[in-house]
């Protein structure tokens, strides 16, 4: 049956209020408007950013459908859409690429200005949403929303991928892989023989470790308060595991003592100002590079020791590995298909969408690197 131009009724998970349990509901998904794409989701990962948004730590407007790390098939397209067509395999992109704004036009910029971090990110570009439930408007998350069988996303936030892509796994290449692996290989350009320290060994931290290892780092120190993360981290390339709660002194001091001079590269993949500071303090004072990947709660601040800044080390924020998303992210899918990168160790759990609550239980219990929900 041709569903284009028709509203589709399907199942979706809704966050009705901050910190509430998600509920799976029947929702109506409008057809895509001009410049938009309606996607039938095949899989979606559960990212730390979704958890932050559901807890009300970010700028999401409630009620909304969470999720951004999605892989699916284009069901229909709105007027003027040229980069994808019905039947194409695609990834949803939390950072779009409009190719018109100052970030997109700059050779280094990737934080497209159409991705605003203000509350309106819950809306489509025309200021409304494409979802309703029981007659009530339901907002998008970061203009994507992937905890749903169907979603509508602006064309600028959709990347066409290789037809051979396994749709039960490549959702991770929508966010986790470019964010983590990309932070190491593309943003930091980790050097051969270097020492790296990675704060947070969850989904993003694990992908960072993969990138450090692939870049030839000789020592990778992993920091996490959950020691259950250590065996998998070691398997990915972590050489030393530290649980900050096991030390009387701050963990950055432990890293300094272990390395003598500080790390060449430090990555924060948790999203807390304290661990951002610890990452900064773990770097070599002169040439160390500290990458902030974790998303801190709204309105939190970072306070640095100002006189210490002059010594030369760099702090850099990084979103999706600094990749221009539509231009670059599909290459990571091809790299996976050609066995140049292996994302399989990042997929620890796959569950049907209706077991969403179990998936979140596993995530909150710290058992997962990434759990993928399958539709
Ligand atoms: P995750 O929950 O899988 O991993 C977080 C890890 O941090 C877990 O292993 C925790 O045990 C550990 N942890 C928590 N608190 C502490 C602490 N105080 N000290 C040490 N370890 C701790 O989440 P994730 O890996 O999916 O996401 C991590 C962060 O990255 C999160 O803030 C998310 O919003 C952010 C993110 N950023 C981007 C980007 O482009 N910059 C993209 C996607 C996710
Ligand atoms: Zn842009």
From TrEMBL:
Keywords: Metal-binding, NAD, Oxidoreductase, Zinc. Pfam families: ADH_N, ADH_zinc_N. The keyword Metal-binding applies. The keyword Metal-binding applies. Its cofactor is Zn(2+). It comes from the Eukaryota. This is Enoyl reductase (ER) domain-containing protein. It comes from Canis lupus familiaris (Dog). The gene is LOC100856515.
């Amino acid at each position: 049956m041709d569903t284009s131009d028709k509203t589709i009724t399907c199942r979706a998970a809704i966050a009705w209020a901050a910190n509430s349990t998600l509920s799976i509901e029947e929702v109506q998904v409008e057809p895509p408007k001009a410049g938009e794409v309606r996607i039938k989701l095949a899989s979606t990962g559960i990212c730390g950013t979704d958890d932050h948004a559901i807890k009300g730590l970010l700028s999401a407007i409630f009620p909304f459908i969470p999720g951004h790390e999605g892989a699916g098939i284009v069901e229909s397209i709105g007027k003027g859409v040229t980069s994808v067509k019905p039947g194409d395999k695609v990834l949803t992109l939390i950072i779009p690429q409009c190719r018109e704004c100052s970030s997109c036009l700059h050779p280094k910029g990737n934080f497209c200005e159409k991705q605003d971090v203000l509350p309106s990110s819950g809306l489509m570009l025309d200021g409304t949403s494409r979802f309703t439930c029981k007659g009530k408007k339901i907002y998008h998350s970061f203009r994507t929303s992937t905890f749903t069988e169907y979603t509508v996303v602006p064309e600028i936030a959709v990347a066409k991928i290789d037809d051979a892509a396994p749709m039960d796994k490549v959702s991770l290449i929508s966010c986790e892989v470019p964010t983590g692996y990309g932070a190491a290989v593309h943003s930091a350009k980790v050097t051969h023989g270097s020492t790296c320290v990675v704060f947070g060994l969850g989904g993003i931290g694990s992908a960072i470790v993969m990138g450090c290892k692939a870049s030839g780092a000789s020592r990778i120190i992993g920091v996490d308060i959950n020691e259950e993360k250590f065996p998998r981290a070691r398997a990915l390339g972590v050489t030393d595991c530290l649980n900050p709660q096991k030390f009387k002194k701050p963990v950055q001091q432990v890293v300094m003592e272990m390395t003598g001079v500080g790390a060449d590269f430090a990555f924060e993949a948790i999203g807390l100002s304290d661990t951002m500071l610890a990452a900064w303090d773990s770097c070599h004072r002169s040439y160390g590079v500290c990458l902030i990947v974790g998303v801190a709660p709204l309105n939190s601040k970072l306070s640095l020791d100002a006189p210490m800044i002059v010594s030369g080390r760099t702090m850099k924020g990084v979103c999706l590995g600094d990749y221009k998303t539509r231009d670059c992210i599909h290459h990571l899918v091809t790299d996976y298909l050609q066995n140049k990168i292996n994302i399989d160790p990042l997929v620890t759990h796959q569950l049907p969408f209706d077991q969403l609550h179990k998936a979140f239980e596993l995530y909150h219990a710290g058992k997962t690197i990434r759990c993928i929900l399958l539709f």
